[in-house]
């Protein structure tokens, strides 16, 4: 599948994207070129403050994701993030952190996404906080990206807007109905993979890729 490449549409606050991360990681480990594009789904007008009703809905959904993917959603996440008064559901800062990482080394975007997801869903950290995100990047050996995130130069902000615009454009063009979404490109043609393939076996995912 060396001639195949893929674009992964995601949002760092999407629980289903967290559930899909093991499959994306396996594709990358297999040498498949997977380009990450954020959609900004839960930032800007898509952001909101957490409340009890939304927290209960999110936790119920998260339990379904855990059953399908095996990805853990901890009690620390439930108590320190979902049920924390005044907690924000806003992926803007986390998306910016992933963009900053990509500016330093585009191959590390998924590493940043992975550590941010783990920090939220397992450790129970507030990934809407820039200092928290900077510490996470630095702990992964991404000190340059951490510094860039805190400084937030115009270059970073412009790059972030550009990436989100690209993600939203592809999302619309392919008629995606949510994230995660994996767009397969072969011989200059793109098509959307059935998202359910990201939650089955790896062999089944590979079969879908070959069929694309």
UniProtKB/TrEMBL annotation:
SUPFAM superfamilies in the record: Thioredoxin-like
InterPro entries on file: Thioredoxin-like_sf
Name recorded for this polypeptide: DsbA family protein
């Amino acid at each position: 599948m060396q001639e195949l490449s893929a674009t992964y549409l995601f949002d760092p606050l999407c629980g289903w994207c967290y559930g899909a991360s093991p499959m994306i990681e396996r594709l990358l480990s297999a040498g498949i070129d997977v380009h990450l594009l954020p959609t900004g789904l839960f930032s800007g007008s898509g952001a909101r403050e957490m409340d009890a009703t939304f927290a209960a809905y999110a936790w119920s959904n998260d339990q379904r994701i855990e059953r399908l993917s095996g990805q853990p959603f901890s009690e620390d996440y439930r108590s320190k993030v979902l049920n924390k008064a005044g907690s924000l559901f806003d992926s803007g800062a986390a998306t910016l952190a992933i963009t900053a990482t990509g500016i330093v080394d585009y191959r590390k975007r998924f590493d940043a996404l992975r550590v941010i997801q783990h920090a939220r869903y397992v450790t129970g950290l507030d990934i809407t906080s820039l200092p928290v995100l900077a510490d996470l990047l630095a702990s992964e050996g991404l000190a340059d990206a951490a510094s860039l995130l805190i400084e937030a130069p115009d270059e970073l902000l412009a790059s972030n807007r550009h990436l989100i615009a690209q993600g939203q454009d592809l999302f619309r063009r392919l008629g995606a109905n949510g994230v995660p979404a994996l767009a397969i490109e072969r011989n200059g043609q793109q098509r959307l993979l059935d998202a359910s393939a990201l939650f089955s076996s790896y062999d089944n995912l590979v079969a879908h890729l070959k069929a694309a």
